Amino acid sequence: MAMGFQLRLIMKVTFFIGLSLAAGSGLSQARAGTEMSAPPTIPWLFAQAVPSVSSKSNHPKAGAGGERRPQGKPKDSPVQSRAEAPLTETPLSKLPKLDSRQRSSPQWVEIVGLNAQALRTASAVSGQPTLQLTSLASSENRRIGVRFTGAAKGKVDRVAAWVKPGTETWVSLTAVDDPLAVAALVTYDLALPKVDRQFEQVVNRGIEEGRDGWLKVWIDFKPENSDVIVQLALYGLNPPASLTLGGMTLEQLK
Question: Is 68 exposed, middle or buried (0-12, 13-18, 19+ CB in 10 A)?
Fold first, then answer.
């Protein structure tokens, strides 16, 4: 990646962070006496990757303190073993392959601070997997990104992600054209659900309820280049927290 692009990105990031801090504590809300979130560390594309560090398991060791081990059936043993295994960051190379024959030729470009597990359930987007994403406490940035080609330069395009909230209900969606010329970022509260805040060159944004419990979070923006990178980030304050991703898309609006 060219040094000039990195410099422009750093300048854009500095502006965004200042804007976020000035916006106050819009993401800090209390429900039923429990604080749900706070102003997040805004996630950024192409930030330096954080080394994968195993998070600590909250499950006590079987038999600790002289207690008897539960006499479960043999078939329960693998489940117990998986529950006790610490989660680690999923490498980019281990993500399920995307169908490059799809419109806009989606390709994974990054995964940072997340554990991704493929689920055997129908996704919201044909040709893309259903992933359970779990945030890791070992990383301040927790995001996954896809590159699309063939955006309508100078016209309005819509980027979207289909999600199902789990223990994680705060997300952001970012759209950036490459080389960096236009950037748009919107944050969402999936629990209500509602749009929370928006930054930079957002033409329109929204969140819609779909079939089978899916929520579609989307941004309209005007890219100046045909390549677009879409990034979904999790930023709840209490990792590990998880949600389900059913796909991301780029759509040319008429």
Answer: exposed
Q: Is residue 73 part of a domain?
A: no
**Residues in the chain with pLDDT < 50?**
1-3, 5-7, 9-82
What does the longest C-alpha to C-alpha distance in the chain come to? 68
Contacts of 178 (CB under 8 A, 6+ apart): 5, 147, 225, 227, 228, 229
* Total number of domains in the chain: 1
The residues pairing with 176 across neighbouring beta strands, listed in sequence order, are 183, 229
Burial class (CB in 10 A: 0-12, 13-18, 19+), 193: middle
Q: Taking the alpha carbons of 201, 203, 208, 212 in that order, is the dihedral positive or negative?
A: negative
Position 69 in a domain: no
- For residue 20, the Cα-to-chain-centroid distance in whole angstroms is 18
Q: Which two tokens stand for residue 158?
A: 């819509």
Q: Which domain covers residue 191, as residue numbers?
A: 3-48+87-252
